[in-house]
Amino acid sequence: MINLPNDFYLNLIFAFILFFIGLYCLLSMRNLIKLLIGIEIIAKGVTLALISASSVKGLILTGQSLVITFIVVEVCAIAVALALVINLYRHTGSLDVKKLTKLRG
Amino acid sequence: MVSLFIIIPFVLAAFLPLIEKVSKRFLPDLLTNLAILFLLIYSMTFGYQVVASHSGIRHFQWFNQNLNIVFALDGFSLFMLFAIYLVSFGVTLFSIDYMEHYGSKGIFYALFMIMVGGMSGLVLATDLFTIYVFLEVAAISSYGLVAYGLKHDELEASFKYLALSAVATAFLLLGIALIFSITGSLKLGDIADRFFKEDAKFIMYICTGFFIFGFGLKAALVPFHSWLPDAHPSAPAPISAMLSGLLIKVSGVYALTRIFLNVFGLTPAVSTVLMYLGIISILVGAVLALGQDDIKRMLAYSSISQVGYIILGFGAGTSFAIMGALFHILNHALAKGLLFLNSGSVEHSTGTRDLNKMGGLGKRMPITAATTVVGSLSVAGVPPLNGFWSKLFIIIGLLQARAYGFAFVAVLASIITLWYYIIIQRRAFFGKLKETLQNVKEVPFWMALSTLLIALVCIIIGIGFPVVISKWITPAVNILEYGIRYAMQYLRL
Amino acid sequence: MQELYLISLCALVFFSVLAVLLKDLLKAALSLMAASVFLAVVLFFMKAYYAGVFEISVVAGLITVLFVSTIGLTRGDDFKESKLPVYIFPLFFIWFIIIDILIMYLLLSKMPPLTKWLSESGKFGDVLWQKRTFDLFAQIGIIFAGVFSVLALFRKRDKND
């Protein structure tokens, strides 16, 4: 009898799918806020992977502390990113990433 | 107390915005400089003693209760701490005058101290996830600092940097999750031990890939470098110096080296990958730097190239190459920090970063011109300056490893490096003074003093390199050469 | 139970896809919130109760509030997102899922057996405080970094700048 919630490979498949959706969003979308949504989706994949990795070892309490730290990091990064977006909007009046062409790596 | 290396920056950062309400400029300047100077001296005295007496692993004591905070202050960490505080001290001195017109110095210094604290924590941590968290501490404060000028390209560069870093760290965490599922522990020593005992080579290679991508992006190795030439030039000059001089090395190169050399062990495959990444970065960075008109962009591309040397040295893995790579971390941090500070001086005095609009500045800004010569020659590797010795060691190490082709390309690229630094000198400082630049003045006192100090340190290290190597670098080389056995013995607490 | 678990995983993926493909930003942010809620359900199934609660309160709550207020502050820009990425998405998506499952199958044959040889007991708070103290320490730094960065980005510039 397989216990689905503890099936590491099933969870990992879904974590990779979330990574893919997020990366697709980052590569194809033009709206700055959409890009941040993509980053958020990748972060959900990370959360899933961390928890299932700790669940498979029976270390769910440690895993939860890792995830909580990760969520704090995520919130701070997103808050800074949204502050950047608002500032950029004040400069250009647009959220289009194509208009951000002053710099080219 | 080893914990002071993290506590002092964080506590000072917490109070700086409040102190700013009392004294707008004087107290923040004074306290930050004193704190960094104290940390520099503390790392040279107390830290050195700890490493010399081989009592590097310390638990943090709090009311006689052992908390699970473990610091590993070994030769490698101490060397990185020393480099961090040495460059930071020059940068804070420079900021006293330079950051005047940016406003709210308190918050600037607070973010700066958090970045320093984050880097110190990363260097001292013995736990993979803790390394990640401190990496984010330094990264998040650097997003704020890159955008500190609040102009369009600063905001844009910061956003781009943030988006790419977020993806890179997500892959790092995926690697960490995979490791956790195998080992059930995140201590570096436990990971080294389990990977050594259990047959999990396949997972190790997958994690290696994730880590090369994640830390490689932080270190701006070539396929992942596209954020650096935007983010580093856009930041205020002291922050450019910090980012290019330290952050890419601590959060990229240090973490990569610690994990690959001490935890995973340098297998021939990983060694080859690192060497190729290094050599490609060296070439691409050097060639792209040649075509730039913006002085700071040129320096940024040069950073990519020099980080390539460091990774090439670590990848080769012979003792001379590791020694050269470590020495190059310090030398490049100093020299590139100095050059970025000088580019800030030029921008401060002339209001432009465009090389086409400069010329003959040497007559008006003799100190800046002279220190730029020192920095350029040091990065380019001209004897007897410090950069020459580190590059020489890397090349000797490559020859020891019988990588003759790599050694040849490394020498060739250092000639290209010299070439574009001569371009900077000729177009900015030599020749006839332009009409528009008649009223240019030399920079204020503290800016000049900090650049002079760093230039002096460059020259001293260049002449006294045997002392630096025997006292600071050999302990670090020993640890890295000891490989995974070091982690298995000492990093398991 | 098992079916419910699979359904919540699929709902998580479904709402994530919606968050990417929906044109209206507000709706996209709300589907992101829904995805967070389903992730929390998944975490509950894995007995990660604290993480689940945190996911709901902080990610579904706080981050959604941040997103919605940013969307409110930046209204007035309705450029047309090109429709091509939306149309070709299913193609890539199915292709990726097949590859993903293949890779996992490969991984399954190469992985060492994942034995559950440890088990943790005790209270969550104790584990967090005793085993991951250094992370908590670093979290203080993270929060400072975030707060000061936001303060720096919204600070008033002096007139003589």
How would you summarize this macromolecular structure in one to three sentences?
Chain A is mainly α and 105 residues long.
What does this structure look like?
The complex is a heterotrimer of chains A (105), B (493) and C (161). With 105 residues, chain A is an all-alpha fold. Chain A contains three helices and no strands. Chain A has helices spanning 8-28, 32-56, 60-92. Chain A is elongated, with a radius of gyration of 17 Å. The termini of chain A are far apart. In chain B, a hairpin with a 2-residue loop joins strand 1 (57-62) and strand 2. Chain B has a two-stranded antiparallel ribbon. Chain B has helices spanning 4-22, 26-52, 75-98, 105-124, 128-146, 152-183, 188-197, 201-219, 228-234, 237-264, 268-290, 295-316, 319-350, 361-364, 366-380, 386-400, 404-429, 445-463, 465-482, 484-490; strands at 57-62, 65-72. Chain B has 20 helices and two strands. In chain B, helix 4 (105-124) packs antiparallel against helix 5. Chain B starts with a helix and ends with a helix. Chain B is mainly α and 493 residues long. Chain C is mostly helical. Chain C contains six helices and no strands. Chain C is extended and about 55 Å long. Chain C starts with a helix and ends in an 8-residue tail after the last helix. The model of chain C has no long low-confidence stretch (mean pLDDT 85). Chains in contact: A-B, A-C, B-C.
Layout: helices, strands, pairs:
The complex is a heterotrimer of chains A (105), B (493) and C (161).
Chain A: H1 8-28, H2 32-56, H3 60-92
Helix pairs in contact in A: 1-2, 2-3
Chain B: H1 4-22, H2 26-52, E1 57-62, E2 65-72, H3 75-98, H4 105-124, H5 128-146, H6 152-183, H7 188-197, H8 201-219, H9 228-234, H10 237-264, H11 268-290, H12 295-316, H13 319-350, H14 361-364, H15 366-380, H16 386-400, H17 404-429, H18 445-463, H19 465-482, H20 484-490
Antiparallel strand pairs in B: 1-2
Helix pairs in contact in B: 1-2, 1-4, 2-3, 3-4, 3-10, 3-13, 3-18, 3-19, 4-5, 4-10, 5-6, 5-10, 6-8, 6-9, 7-10, 7-20, 8-10, 9-10, 9-12, 10-12, 10-13, 10-19, 10-20, 11-12, 11-17, 12-13, 12-16, 12-17, 13-15, 13-16, 13-18, 13-19, 15-17, 15-18, 16-17, 16-18, 18-19
Chain C: H1 2-21, H2 25-45, H3 49-73, H4 84-110, H5 124-131, H6 133-153
Helix pairs in contact in C: 1-2, 2-3
